[in-house]
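User:
Care to share a sequence and structure tokens?

Assistant:
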Amino acid sequence: MSHTAALPAASPRPIGDLLREWRRHRRLSQLDLASGAEISTRHLSFMESGRAQPSRDMIVRLAEYLEIPLRERNQLLIAAGFAPAYRERALADPALASVRDTMRLLLQGMEPYPALVVDRHWHLVDCNQATQRLLAGLPPQWLQPPIHVLKLSLHPTGLAPRIRNLPVWRAHLLERLRRQIDATQDPGLMTLLAELRSYPGEESASSHTNDAIAVPMELELGDAVLSMLSTTTVFGTPMDITLAELALEAFVPADAATAACLRQLAAA
């Protein structure tokens, strides 16, 4: 049996380069960032150029002001030679038992309205029975883990044919994804956006009514059309990467007819 030697891990990029990239990505000048983080512009310039090495506390301070996600904050710390500050546990870890209980409580509390929990890359983590009822009848490949929520929603063999206002809803989802990429600079999300944009269909930024307060998803279910508004809930002040990257997506009725239909489905 032959063995292939493992390639050495790539050396991390200099911390100064990473700080400069994040500052520019947030469209801040050195003066803007230095003033916001309460440090001198000279010190920031020296850190970005590599003439000064930032301390661990300084990296955390700058990352907080730049609103850098926890996963990327760890990358900054590693680049500077420090240990990561934020742990990443599997959701099944006993330490996250209270998180799992909270998610289940929130999902059940949304019944009879659909609600689901997704991770950073939009994989389904958990959902309530109302969500399962709406997904019933889809091709089996879409219901096998890992379920990817955005692909399931926009693919022509998934939910897309049942979404009456697909151009508007597609534009809404892709814009959300673009904002997420802007916040995280995650290459995986960039690849996902390219794939979703390759699916057949048009994007439309205009709503079907002039007095709409938000973009609903109009989902055909038999002879009925469910009109639902989406809401997003995240955990506040997380210190664990897994927890920071979870989001609860809930769909609430946009009209009385939809609310009645969802209650009837649950009763049946």
Summary: Residues 15-79 form a domain with the 434 Repressor (Amino-terminal Domain) fold (CATH 1.10.260.40). The chain has two domains: 15-79, 94-267. Confidence is low (pLDDT under 50) at residues 1-10.
